[in-house]
Amino acid sequence: MMSEVVIQKPKNEETKPKKTVKSYVSKFAPLIGLVLLTTILTFLSDKFLTMNNVMNIARQSSINAILAIGMLLPILTAGIDLSVGSILAVSIMVMGIVSINMGLSPILGILVCLAVGAAFGLINGLLLTKLRLPHPFISTLGTMNIARGIALIITAAAPIAGFPYLIQFLGREFVGPIPVSFLLVIAVYIIFHIFLTRTQTGRYIYAIGGNKEAARLSGINVDRVLIIVYVISGLMAGLAGLVMVGRVNSAFPLAGLSYELDAIAAVIIGGASFMGGVGTVWGTLIGAMIIAVLRNGLNLLNVPADFQMAVIGFVIIAAVYVDVLRQRKGKKG
Amino acid sequence: MVTHAGSLLEMKGIKKSFGQNHVLKGIDLDVKAGEVHVLLGENGAGKSTLIKILTGAYEKDAGEIYWEGQKIQLNTPVEAMSLGIATIYQELNVIPELKVYENIFLGRELKRRGKLSLLNQKEMRKEAERCLMMLGQSPALADKQLGELGIGQQQLVEIAKALALDAKLIIMDEPTSSLSGTEVEQLYSCVEQLTEKGIAIVFISHRLEEIRRMGDRITILRDGFKIDTLPVQTTETDYWIELMVGRTLDEKYPKQSFTLGEEGFRVENIEVSGTKEPVGFSVRYGEIVGISGLVGAGRTELARAIFSADVRGGGKVFIDGKEIRIKSPRDAIDSGIAFITEDRKSEGLLLDQPLDFNIAMANMRKFTKKSRLVDLKGIREEAINYIKELKVRPNNIDLHARHLSGGNQQKVVIAKWLCTQAKVYIFDEPTRGIDVGAKVEVYRLMNQLIESGAIVLMISSDLPEILGMCDRVLVMSEGKITADLEIEEATQERIMKAATGG
C-alpha cells in the first residue's frame, strides 16, 4: 500500500573524505609553521641559513627534543610529567659522583645516569598507579621537588666537572659537520615512532589516552602501561642529562631547571592534545625544532632573552589555537 | 490561548553538510503550540543535526526558519534560548553539588539591588517552587541537593529550568532512555501538563509504544530527507517503521529457535556489589538468555562482577564445566568472555581513533607478530571484513569513531568483541538508543552467534525485546535473581512482579 514511499535503499558507497587542501593545511600546520619561520628568518638574517648555524640549531635543540619525546608519552595518556628537568639534574649529579668522585668507569657512570632517570620515572608511575594519586600533575610536582632537592643535597649544591671523554661523547662530538647529539635525536625519534605506531604497548598508550575505561574493559593492563610511560619519560630525562654534560662538561644541581616547560611546549606545538590520545612523534620533533629555530633566530636578531620568552608564549597559544579551530571545523553530531 | 492558526516554529528546506558529508538535504518541519511533535528516524538520519540547528549549536547551510510567523536567524544557543527554545539532552546538564533552585537559575542568577549585587536567594527559591509546581512536583524539592535526587527527578529539574526561562518549545532528546518505569510515568504526566499550557514539545524517541502514547504528530526522517509528517493517532506503527527504514522490515524480532544443547556457561556464588546473597545461574548452548529488571537492580553489576571489571568479590565461573579463573578483564577475555558494555562512548570506544584500531583493541595479541611489531595491515584487513559483515556506514575504516551515528558505533563495539573470538557474549542494553533497522541487525547477529556455538546473554530494560528474542529470562531485583522463566511462561506481568520484588 505504501510502496511508492519506499524509496531506494541508501547507497552503500565507500565514503572516503576527500583530502582537501584545507585538511592538509591543518594536518601539517606545525610543519608549515616551521617552514614559514625558517623562510622569514632567512630573509631577516644572512647568518641564519648557513651550514654552521643550522648545525648549531640541531645541537641546541637536542636536549629539549629528547625531553619532549619522553614527555609525549605521558601527554598521550592525558597525563603530564613535570619532574623531567629535576630528574635530569639528579641523574647527572649521581653520574658525577660515580664516575668522578668515586672514580668508577665512565660506562658505569652512563648506565647509572640512565638508571637513576628510569628509577625516578618508576616512582612517578607507582605514585600514579599504586598510591592512586588523582593526577600525575600532583605526583610529578612532588617528585620534581624531591629530585631537585636530592640533586642539591648529595653534592652539597656544588657542581662536578672534568668528565671523561666517553661521557662527553654524545653531547660534544661531531660526525663530519653533524653533531652526534642530533644523530642521537634522530635515532631516538625513529625508535619512538616504531614503538608508538607498531608495538602493542605503543598502541595501548593511545588507547588509554583516548578512553581509559574502554581500554581497561578491553583487557588492557592500564597500570602497567602507565608505569612504562613514566619510566620511559624518566629515562629520556637521564639521556638528555647525558647530552647536557657532554655539552657543558660539567654537572650542576640546578641543571635543567624548568626544562619540563619547553618539553611540554614542544609536544603541544607539535599538535598533541592535552586531553590525551592524539599526538605524533614527528609533530613533537617539529615542535622542538620550532622552539629551537625561534630561540636561535631571535638571538641572531639580537632580541633580548626576556622578549624571547614572551614570543615563545605567543607561539604556544597560537599553535593550540590553530588546533582548536581545526577541531571546531571537524566536529559533527 | 494560542490565537494564530499558524505554527509556532517552521523550518523550511534546511540543509547542512560537514565537508563531503551531506547530513540534511532539505528538511521541513513545523511545530504547533501545545503539541508533542515526534522526530523519528534511524541513527544518522539527521535528527540530532536538525536539533542542533534548532538550538543554535550549528549554523544551517541553507533554508529558512520562522518563529511565530517571523523569519529569524538562529546562529547561537543564546538566541535560541531568548526565543524560548529549550533542550533537555540525554546527558543532563546539572550540577549535583548545587541545590535544585541554584541549578534552575544557573548562569542567570537573580540579584538583589545595591552595589554588592548579592544573590536574591528568596526570589529564586520562590520562582523555582512555582516552576516545580507547574510540573506537579512538591515545592520542597527546590531546596534539596540535586545530587540526592534520582535521575528522573533530575530531569524534571531540567524541565523546570526550561520553564523558568519561559520556554515555548522544549526539545527532549530520548528523555526516557535512562528512566525507570515510574519515572517514565511521571515524565509523561509532566509533558501533558506542559502541552496543556500551550508549550510545544519536540520529542525524539526510538520507543514506538511511547511515541504512540505521547505523540500528536510524527515527522519521519531518512538519510537527511523528510519523508513525511503524520498524525500519530490515525497511522500504523508498522507504517512509520517502513517509512523510516525505507523497506519493509520482515520482523521486529527475528527470533530463531535452535536445539537446546549442553550447559555451556555457569556462574556460582558471584557477589553483586551492595547485596549479601551471592548469585548463580547457568546457560545452555542454543538459547539466548535475557536478564531483566529495573534500573539499579544489579544487572550491570552482575555482568561486571563476572567480567572482573571491578575488584572481584568471589564466586566461580565455568565454561563447558571447567572452572576459569578471572582476576581482571584480561583474564575474562582470554577465557573467552566478551562484555559489550552499555555505554558505547564512555566504556566502549576510542572516539578519536579510526575504526580499525577500535576493532583490534581488545585483541592486539592476535595482531602482534613474532618481531613484536603490530601487523597494521592485518588489523586493517580484518577490520574491513567486520565493517562489511556488520554493514557499518559509512564503511570507511579511517574514519574516527566519533563521526559515526549511535547504531554504527554500537556495531563497531560489537566488532571489537567478535574480534576477540569469544565464546560467551554478555550484551548490556545492546539496542539502547539505536534505531529499529540496526536493532534487527543486532538481533540477527545474536542468532548467528548462537548458531555458531556461542553463549549469548542479554541484559535489557526493553521488555518487548526480552520477550521477542530470548528463550529464557532471568529477572533481577535488589542484586538477587528473583525469577528464572522459560519464555513460554514469561509475561510482562510476571517479569514486572519479579522485578519489583513482589
Percentage of residues in helical conformation of chain A: over 70%
Radius of gyration of chain B: 24 Å
Question: How many beta-strand segments of chain A?
Answer: 4
Number of DSSP strand runs of chain B = 20
Q: Going across the major beta sheet of chain A, what is the strand order? A: 1-4
Oligomer: heterodimer
Number of domains of chain B: 3
Pfam families (chain B): ABC_tran (PF00005)
Membrane topology (chain B): Peripheral membrane protein
InterPro entries (chain B): AAA+_ATPase, ABC_carbohydrate_import_ATPase, ABC_transporter-like_ATP-bd, ABC_transporter-like_CS, P-loop_NTPase
Keywords (chain B): ATP-binding, Cell membrane, Membrane, Nucleotide-binding, Repeat, Sugar transport, Translocase, Transport
Q: Can you put this structure into words, describing what you see?
A:
The complex is a heterodimer of chains A (333) and B (502). With 333 residues, chain A is mainly alpha-helical. Chain A has a domain at 49-256 and 273-279. Helix content of chain A is 71%, strand content 2%. In chain A, strands 1-4 form a two-stranded antiparallel ribbon. In chain A, strands 2-3 form a two-stranded antiparallel ribbon. In chain A, helix 4 runs antiparallel to helix 5 (106-129) and helix 12 crosses helix 13. Chain A is globular, with a radius of gyration of 22 Å. With 502 residues, chain B is an alpha/beta fold. Chain B folds into 3 domains: 9-245, P-loop containing nucleotide triphosphate hydrolases (Rossmann fold, 3-Layer(aba) Sandwich), CATH 3.40.50; 261-336 and 425-502, 3-Layer(aba) Sandwich (Rossmann fold); 344-421, no CATH class. Chain B has helices at 47-54, 77-83, 100-104, 121-134, 151-164, 181-196, 208-214, 237-245, 299-307, 329-334, 344-348, 355-360, 376-389, 406-418, 436-451, 463-469, 492-499, and strands spanning 9-18, 21-31, 36-41, 62-67, 70-72, 85-88, 169-173, 200-204, 217-222, 225-231, 263-270, 279-284, 288-293, 316-319, 322-324, 337-340, 424-428, 455-459, 472-477, 480-486. Chain B has a 6-stranded mixed sheet, sandwiched between helices. Chain B has a 6-stranded mixed sheet with strand order 16-17-18-13-19-20, with helices on both faces. In chain B, strand 17, helix 15 and strand 18 form a beta-alpha-beta unit. Chain B is globular and about 75 Å long. Chain B starts with 8 loop residues before the first strand and ends with a helix. The chains are: A mainly alpha (333), B alpha/beta (502). Chains A and B meet through helix 8, helix 9 and helix 10 of A and helix 1, helix 8, helix 10 and helix 11 of B.
